[in-house]
## 1
Amino acid sequence: MHTIGEISNKFNLSISTIRYYDKEGLFPNVERKNGIRQFSDSDVESILVIECLKKSGMQIKEIKRFLDWCNQGDGTLQKRYEMFIDQKEKVLSQIAELEKALNLINFKCWYYQEACK
């Protein structure tokens, strides 16, 4: 079992962020001993997925839907698969946009380097 402080340090997340995740229902099975949250290894794995999905632009309510589907079992595998396919497309689109921006930045770096000579 892991304390909220350990989770905070391990993932470089603020304690308030972890509490927010818990309040939003992302850790439905988190245990409490004397009012102190005790996170299981399964909760730790969930945090890895949560952080990945957040970085990919997914909103907390969508992440909660995914985690709810996970808790419902194998009957939701197709929904989960489709969610990840959709998110993959969004991430690929973001990458394409960032590559365009990087190309322009690289050109401007070259331009100003030459102009400074």
Note: The chain has a mean pLDDT of 94.
## 2
Amino acid sequence: MNPAILIRTGVATCLLIIFGVPCAAAQDFPNRPVRLVAPFSAGGGADAAARLVAEKLSESFGKQVVVDNRPGASNIIGTEIVAKAPADGYTILLAINNHAINAGMFTKLPYHPEKDFAPITLIGLTPFMLVVHPSLPVKSTQDLIALARAKPGTLNYASPGNGTAAHFAAELFKLRAKVELTHIPYKGVSQAVIDLVAGTVHVMIPSPGSALAQVKAGRLRLLAVTTHHRARTLPDVPTLHESGVPGYEFSNW
């Protein structure tokens, strides 16, 4: 997953330093370690992005930037920690799609997703991947659709949890492809991928950072990517739109 960095509202020093803008208030920032809260489990694509960002910021700041994984409740637990932290720039959030999804999913949140945070930068956008366990007798998206329609409700799919971007990506696939798949939510992407590799679940739509290594090792079969255009890093992999799921498009930030 490729997230955005958000900072607690009320602090400009971190943003100014990251963009190289000198200001008097920022001259002594940081003078102690900075905490980068990652509101998801360790080991997934978003976690890898968090650690890469932390490493580069540590080099730039000359002070350690520590990744603090606080998974759970569709990223709400970690996000609330940042929202309630002092507005001094020393606690920042690595946000993913769920920061926006939760605003529409929940009638009440322990923070305001816009007013309590100020965006610093967008790290990037990535596709998700439709992957299956190799034991499933399918070689393409159309094969998977045919199998799911022949055996409605018997195939299941994993997600990192209810309300996560991967959950929505799979539900959109179900709607567009007109198939029934049973949702198996996990408490994080790592365990979901482990069970998919073990064959406990059949299907998943994870980010490349979470499962591409397993695809390359032959432990998972990659059928399609979720963006409208093919991924530059996976040019030979068709999109779901190309694969007979018209209008399907889902990207991750």
Note: Residues 126-252 form a domain with the D-Maltodextrin-Binding Protein; domain 2 fold (CATH 3.40.190.10).
## 3
Amino acid sequence: MIPNLRSSSLLDRQSNKRSDPEYLASLVRNADTRFTVLLDHKPVIVSNEARTEASLRWFTLAELVSAGLVVADPFFLGVERTGGAARFAVAINELRIRHLPAALQLLAPAVDLRSLAMQGIVSSEEVSLAGKAKALAHWHDNARCCGRCGAATHLRDGGWRRRCWSCGTDMFPRTDPVVIMLVEHPDRQSCLLGRSGRFAPKMYSTLAGFIEPGEDIADAVRREVMEEAGVEVGDVSYHSTQPWPFPHSLMIGCIAQATTTELTIDLEELVDARWFSREECRHMIEGTHPDGLSGPGRQAIARALLTAFVEGRS
């Protein structure tokens, strides 16, 4: 089974300590602490010349300061489970450092996280760490003002809370639950895949959609499949989950059993949807489909769902 891109186990989040500002300040100053940088939400990496292997680049505080960067309010990611060194993330807007050539040179290359995940050139653990940092950075960018009174908010708990200076309201990073489902034909020999207009040419994937308030997982699966493809679903079973930082979702993978087969496609959501045989799906995963059709990327939970179907484990 292809493992999902999951929450990294490299670090202990220290959630019971990150509300202590003195503790966090001592970690920031520690010579063993390392910082990863997001430049416009893109992680800074190191790679081989051919860009077939890469990893996050980790900086010392001295390296960042010497390049003229101000490390204010870094996001605390946790401490290493082996060794105990702290890891932080720093989010930087490129426009604000264009007058710092040393910093721009230091923070290159910065690569889109989705591309890194889909290419599979960075380990799943490090992609997960970068995803955690990106999700936090995106939330902070959109939570600078209090939703209750409109006043400014300030970062707390190493980036895991914001507090309104006026009314004292606390806000916490959000996670949006999304159902993603492999829909099996009633004959169990084919499955339903769709094409969004955002996909690469000839790529098909599983259906997905956000869970709405007051809705459980199974009901969300049934509603989304009916809305997007016009297919009724009976039994729904859980498969696995995957954090997905685009920008801050939790993908809840399910296997759904269709009870009808006629398709009525919502063309605002999908440009195409169809039933694919198990053999066709195998060719799509292996890149050998005679029509050049392809499936979801290697690190997407949709790939794990489709692989389970191909291997008869769904």
Note: The CA atoms of residues 192 and 275 lie 5 Å apart.
